[in-house]
Protein 1
Amino acid sequence: MSASPDIPNKFARWRDVRSFRRALLASVIFTAGLWWIKILEDVMGRPLNSLGVLPGQWTGLIGVVTAPLIHGSYSHLLANSPPLLILGTLSLYTYPKASRWAIPMIWILSGLGTWLIGRHSSHIGVSGLTHGLMFFVLVLGILRWEPRSIATALVAFLLYGGMVTTIFPREEGVSFEYHLAGAVAGVLAAILWRRRDPLPARKKYSWELEEELPSGPHSSSARNSSRRVRKRCRCCGNGNLAMTGANATRRSCRFAPRLLITMRIPAPRPPP
C-alpha cells in the first residue's frame, strides 16, 4: 500500500501542535491560579504578604514554597503574567522532560537564595521563577546548539532579554535578590538537565547520501541498489518495516499497524 511520503510529516506536525497546546494549557492554568489567589485575597480582606520569603528568619522559610503564589497588587501580578505565560510555554514545549525537573528546582532554589542574601523584607511574586525560566531557556540554547534550541533562546531573549539587567539593584521596592537567585537556579538547571531531552534527528540531504556510497567499480551498482525501498508506518513514521524483494517483516505500530507507505533509502555497501 503506497501513499504520499509527506504523511509522516503531517503526523509529526500534529504531535508538535498537541505538545504546544499542552504546554500552553499548563501555563494558562497556573497563571489563572495566581489570579484566583489574588482575587480570593481581596475578597477575604486579609493580605498574604506574611507568606513571602523573610530572609534570616526560620519562620520565613515557608515563603520558599508560598512566595511565588503571592503578589502585592494587581499591577504586580499583571506585570508577571505575560512572561510567565510565554516563558512557561516555551520551556514546557521545547524541553518537556527537562522542565519537569527544572521548574521545581528554580522554584525552591530561588526562594532559598533569597532567604540567604535578601534584605529584611517580605519577598513575594513569581518573578524569581520567570527569571529562572528565561535563563534556563537561554543557556540551553547555547549548550545544545541545535536549530530548535537556538530559535527558542532567541525568542526568549528578544522578548525578555531585559531580565539580564533586573538581576542587579535598580529601584527601591523591587526584589533583585529574587531575580538573581532565580537566574542562578535557571543556569544550574540548564547545565544539569541539558541532556534530559534527546536532540532531534539531523536531516541528511541527497548529496550527503551520495557521498556515503562507495566509489569504484561497484559504485554504479550500489547507486542502483539504493533504490530499494523500506516500508514506514504511515502515521508515526517508524522505519522498522524493512522490505527485501516481495517479503516484508510486519511489526506493530501503536497507532495504526496497517497504514504503510514506501520510502526510498540507501542500500548497504556491497562487499569488496
Protein 2
Amino acid sequence: MRFNMVHIAKQINFREGCELACPAGYNFVFMSPMGSSLFEDRIASHYNDLSDRLRRAADHVLANPVDVATRSLRSIAEESGLAPASYTRLAQALGYAGYEALREELRGAVGQRYARFSDKAKALQEDLARETAPAFLHQHSEAVIANLAMLTRDLDPERLERLVNDLQHARQVAVSGGLSSQFLAHHMVYLARYFSGQWRVCGSQGQNAAAALSDLGREDLFLLFTLRPFAACSIRLAEAAHKQGLRLAVITDTHSCPALAVADHGIVVPTETPQFFSSHAAVVSVLETIIGMLVARAGKTAQERIAQVADLNHDLGEYWEKP
C-alpha cells in the first residue's frame, strides 16, 4: 500500500445517548460509533489489497450498511450482482471470522445511506415542505458540526505532519481540483502564495494540465482535491502524476477514491449533509489547517512575505477603503 491513509469514517457518528436536534423526516439515521466506523477502518487498511470483485462487495456494503445488517446474504448478493461467496471471502479478508461476524458489527449501527443527487434533492424538497427554515438550518448546521467533530477526533496528527513536511520541503507544489473541488485548489493556492512563491494551480482557467504536470519533477509535490462524483480529469491527472514519479497527495471523501491507490498521502474527510451536494466545510478546515502549519514552520520569512504582499495589495488598490 503506497499511500499514508488518514481514515475518517464517512458516516456521521455519535455516542449512544447523544442528543441531536434532527427534525423527523430528514432522512438521517444515526448510529453508535462501534458499528460501521470499525468496519470502515478495516476497509481503509485492506482496500488496495482486495481483488476487484471483493472491492465491489466492500463498496456495496459501505453504500448499504442498513440492508447488509438487516437483509439476508442471498438478497444482498442478488442486488449487487455478486455471488454470496464474495461477501464471505470479503469478511475473511478483513479479519472477521465470517460473514455473520461482519453483519453483527453492522447490526450495532445504522449508517447514513448515500443517494443520487436527484434523490437527495427530492427528499430535501419534501423535508422543507414539512419543516420551517430555522429547523432546516439547525439540522444542516448539526451535520456540518458533526463532520468537523469527526475530523478533529479521527485525523491522525502524525500523518498530517508528514504531509505538511513534504509540502514544506517541496521545490514546487501544484494543486488541482475538478468540478466542485476547483475552488478548493484556488483557495489553497491563494493563501499559500501569501507566504511562498512555489505554489500554483494546475490545469485551470485555460491552462494545459498536461503541460503544467510535465514541468514537475521528483522534488515537487502534486496535491489533488477530488470529491464524489469524481472528475474524470482529476483521476487521470493522479494516474499521470504517479506514472511520472511525482509525489502525490489526495484529499477526498471516500476510501474508494481511485486516486488513493497511487497516492503517497491520502486524507479522507467526512462531507455528509442533508443537501443534495456534499459539504466542503471539513475539507476547508483541513486545507486551512495545513496552511496554518506551513506558516508556523516558515517563521520570519513567511511574516515578511505576507507583509510585503499585503502592502502591495494596498498599493494596487486591491482592498476597498472608505473614501
Protein 3
Amino acid sequence: MPQPTTPPFEARRRAQDARRRRNRRTAVSVAIPALITGLALLVLWLGIGRPSSSGDAGGPDVPALGPGTRPPDITIAAAGQVQLRLPVDPARVTAVAFRPADDPGALSLTPSGPLPWEDLGGAGARRSGVDVGARAGTLVYAPVDGRIIAIVPFVLRGRPLGSQYAVKPSNNLGVVVLVSHVEPAVGQTKRAVGDSVRAGATVLGQIPDASSIVRQPISRFSADEGNHVAITVVRLADG
C-alpha cells in the first residue's frame, strides 16, 4: 500500500520550524559567552581586582581607614641625641613634611628613616618642625620615651584644635618634644601631666579634623585636607 505523501505546505512549515530551532540554539550559544563577559566587566568596574585610585601602578597607595595600630620602630627625624619615632600607623600616613617652626627655640631636625618626606619651607628653609599627615581619627603615639610635663589647649585661627603635649625625653633633659594637633581618642586612656610614655607604644590621643578651620600646607603633598600631627623639639630655658 503506498504511503501518504506530505502536502507541500506542511513540508514547508516543518522546514521553517527546524530552521527556527537551529537559530534559537545559535542565539543561546552566542548569548551565554556574551553574558559571562558582561558580568566579568561589571565585577572589574565595581572594584574587584581594580588598581587604587592613584591612577597608576607606581603611584602611592591610598591610606587605609580607621584609627590604625601601633607603629613599628621607625625613625623619621633627629635633633641631636633625640630620635623622633613615627607617631602613627604607617598604613595611615598621607605625607611627611618638614617646615620652619614658629617657636624660636625649636631645634633643627635632620630627616632620617625609610619614609619619603617633603619640604614645606622650600629650598634652604630651616627644618625645625615635622608634620606627619594622616586622616582625622588616626591614633597618635608618643614619638619618644619620656614623661609628659605639660598639656595645653592648641588653638588654630582662634578655634580649639585638641591639645599640645610637652614630653621631656628620658635621654635628654635639656629639651622638650612638643606634639600638637592631638585630641582625646575614643576608647583610649586619657593622658595626664606626670604620665610616663613609651615611643610607639603609648597612645597620646588621635588626630582631630581641622578641615573646617583651614586647609593645611601639608595638603600640597597629601592630596587631602591635610590633617596631621605636628612635632617640634624645643630647648628648655634652663637647659
Protein 4
Amino acid sequence: MENGALERETEAAARPGATAVGPGTSAAAPDPQWGGDLLDLDAYLRRIGYEGPRTATVETLFDLHRMHKAAIAFENLDVALERGVSLQLDDVQRKLVDSGRGGYCFEHNLLFAAVLERLGFPVTRLLARVRLGRRQIRYRAHTVLAVGAGYELWLADAGFGAEGLIEPVPLHSGSVAKAGAWSWRVLREVDQWVLQTLRDGDWFDLYAFRVEQHFPPDFEVSNHYTAHHARSAFTGKVVAMRGTEDVQQTLRDRELTTRHADDVIERTALTADEVVDLLRGTFAIRLTDRDAHLLRRRLAFLASQGASKSPKPSPTPLQEA
C-alpha cells in the first residue's frame, strides 16, 4: 500500500459503492524503514487508556484515534526551547509515551501509524500543505495517514491540533465526519484531496494532500524546516493545542484562544506561571520542574521582545506556516 496500489484504491474509493480493505484482508508486514519494530504497543495502549480488542476493524481505528487525540497533547515545547525534534520512533515513543509529553504532527502521526501497522492496518504516511482558508502554495508542513479498514480507505490524523479530526473520515469525495459540535469534509480537487471544517456555516479548507509514496527522508526534511527555520509556524513561540467535542483551544505564548461550539471565541491573557499550570492541567503535559523553569524564562524573553510592538489579534500558529 506504499505505492501506486494505494493511489488506485484511493481513486476507487472516490466512486460510490467501491471497496478497499475488508475484514478478511491481511495487511502487508510493516516496512522496517519506519522503525515499527521498536514500538512498545502495550505501553502505548496504557498511555491512551485503551483496553479494547487488538483487531484491525473500523471500530478499533475509531477508538484508537479518539483516545490518542484525547490523551496526547499537541505541543511544540522542544522547538520553543530550541532542542529540535527527532522522528526516530524510539525517541518519539520515549517522549510521547514514556515521558507523558505531547508533540506536533510528525511525532503524533508517525507514532500512530506504527501502532496501526502493528495491529494489522494497511497504512500510508502522507505529507500535506496547510491552507487554513488560503490557497497559496506552502511547503508540506503536515503529516496525515491513509488507512485501510472495513472495505474503506480512511483519512486519519491524530496530530493537527485544535481543529483536527477527532475521528477518521472516509477518503472519498464529499464524505463528512461529525464529532460533537464540529464537522469535517473531504473533497477531491483535481489531483489532490482537501480536508475542510465547518466554520460559521461555511466550509473552510484546513489542508491539501496527494496520495503518493513518501519515505522517511521526506519527513525528516519537512520536520527539520518546521523545527528550525525562522519562518516556520512553530519556531520562536510556545504552542499547545487541544480539541474536544465541545471546545477547541490554542495556546500561543501567553495567550489562550478558546473556540466554543457556538463559534464564540475567547482570548485570555496569562502569566508565565499560569501557562505552566495550563500545560500541566488542561493540556495534560507532564513537565519536569527543569522544563517548567526554562519555559518561564522563555516566555519572559518572548514577552520582552514583543513589548515594543503594537498589539494585534494573534493568528493561529498554523496560519503562519
